Amino acid sequence: MSKFSRNKFMMETQREENVDQIIEGLLKGDRMMLSRAITLIESQAGRHKKQAEEILQRIMTRSGNSIRIGISGVPGAGKSTLIESLGLHLCKQGYQVAVLAVDPSSAVHGGSILGDKTRMEQLSKHPNAFIRPSPSGGRLGGVHLRTRETIFICEAAGYNVILVETVGVGQSEVMVRDMVDFFMLLVLTGAGDELQGMKKGIMEFADAVIINKADGPNAEAAKKTQREYQQILQFLQPAANDWVRPALTCSALYGEGIEQIWKTVLEFEKTTKESGLFYNNRNIQAKAWLYTNIREKLETDFFSHEKIKNLIPDIEKKVLEEKMTVTKASKILFNAFYGK
Amino acid sequence: MSKFSRNKFMMETQREENVDQIIEGLLKGDRMMLSRAITLIESQAGRHKKQAEEILQRIMTRSGNSIRIGISGVPGAGKSTLIESLGLHLCKQGYQVAVLAVDPSSAVHGGSILGDKTRMEQLSKHPNAFIRPSPSGGRLGGVHLRTRETIFICEAAGYNVILVETVGVGQSEVMVRDMVDFFMLLVLTGAGDELQGMKKGIMEFADAVIINKADGPNAEAAKKTQREYQQILQFLQPAANDWVRPALTCSALYGEGIEQIWKTVLEFEKTTKESGLFYNNRNIQAKAWLYTNIREKLETDFFSHEKIKNLIPDIEKKVLEEKMTVTKASKILFNAFYGK
């Protein structure tokens, strides 16, 4: 065997061993292997993509056995405190809790990468918990796709409660909604925060609104806010839904109301599993995932095409100045794309 | 000249004459030619498409000089009565009023095609008005694109108020919003209708809510509904907007409140033209139009591809049953699409 082919052989073997090791490890719940698998999934390198794909393909039948919960809210609403509090509550009951974050652009609001572990100090030390810091940067769509795959990997590793945190910038909530079973919106008392939820249209798909920091002198105001949200949620109630969305108060810091939040999640799971909505939603999500993936690739292929990149600034200008119709602009671009 | 080439010559000449005639006619405000131009635009025949494209390209610099108003509301809210009332009010003041309809699927709610002219009996007889019945059937996206082009044609024909009516099925409102300057939502008193506006998320982009049928024994209830909407609109107020969206009452049937609606539109036009929002919106719309067009064509090309049509049922099934990852599914489909 030549030196070259021996090296190639060793590399191939090593690759195979790695994937096998990772899969074996993560199915046993080995966090190191779980972390490695997620790193491969998040990697942009072609070789890693292949390995990630192989892992995913092989663990797929082992995933799905969890309740996936999305948690959203404006910065300062107390998302990490709630996750710490709820996560510990669940870990103590024997649940395996994985915490993931969809952070559309970490550069915008620094801190979350620095501090995921320190933010959730107690939870991060609990043997039943696995906290994955936010992926750094990257396109929103990409992060979204990777987070969905990360959920599958965590489930295969035995985690049966997945908490997906997202920082409220609108688009990311829509993406998280499309990968979770239950979506909660964390708010504070005071009109400013209420407006935020409403404006972004997040309220429309929240399965529950949680008014946090309902403690001390704030308790009274929180009750009032709760009533306001109950009214708004009534307005927004979807027709084809057997779930009446509640507004709850809690104090994540003092652990008050956490039990009630979890009861609400279980009630939701029970109701929607009985009605079939739970499974139906997961099917819709899987389908949407496929088509989103296709659309994104189509657009990426098109707009990153050399000829299109060269043509588009001038064509866009002409369309805006009403010197060219959209039909003509489109024709020129597609002729270039298909190499006509 | 052979018989063949003479025929060909005559056909070519006729085609040229037609387009020239149509353009000349419609720029003079000839309704017959305007109707013919719109028919060409709505036609799916390849030859018509070419003519339509030529007309559009040549009249483009003459379009844009109007206020484009979208009117939405549940069936029965009184949209046609309002359009008749508002349209006549404007025609009498010397405005040229064109009425278009975006009817996503005429089959679903019969009647609008039958009755556009009879629904607006007086307006349809006024020399300053042009009413174009709803396009019959067709894909939602297609209708949307044609309606936008129809607006341009009407503007080139001298119409300076364009009323675009849409029947509330959610998606069509979003499309109409993307082609008008001012969007009004017509509602009735009573919780049922209020809910409808909220549920579909239409409230979020309404520039005004009009509570219709505020007459007789209904007048009191309408005032109450008005106050409720004012409150909701306050909740939904967008941050980056200098326009405070009002809730108005009117009786389209008795012509009450129509003057106030028009004053509101003019006030909106003045405010947003001064702030630049008006022109900015039109630019955003033109850009969105281009990119929507590109995306639609990309998806149509992909999903109508023979190989994709054959592959997708099985692949979708495998993804739903979690037997295949989305990445792998996507790879198989794209290899087929690009002929690899």
UniProtKB/TrEMBL annotation, chains A, B:
<dbReference type="GO" id="GO:0016787">
    <property type="term" value="F:hydrolase activity"/>
</dbReference>
<comment type="similarity">
    <text>Belongs to the SIMIBI class G3E GTPase family. ArgK/MeaB subfamily.</text>
</comment>
<dbReference type="InterPro" id="IPR027417">
    <property type="entry name" value="P-loop_NTPase"/>
</dbReference>
<protein>
    <submittedName>
        <fullName>Methylmalonyl Co-A mutase-associated GTPase MeaB</fullName>
        <ecNumber>3.6.5.-</ecNumber>
    </submittedName>
</protein>
<dbReference type="Pfam" id="PF03308">
    <property type="entry name" value="MeaB"/>
</dbReference>
<keyword id="KW-0378">Hydrolase</keyword>
<dbReference type="InterPro" id="IPR005129">
    <property type="entry name" value="GTPase_ArgK"/>
</dbReference>
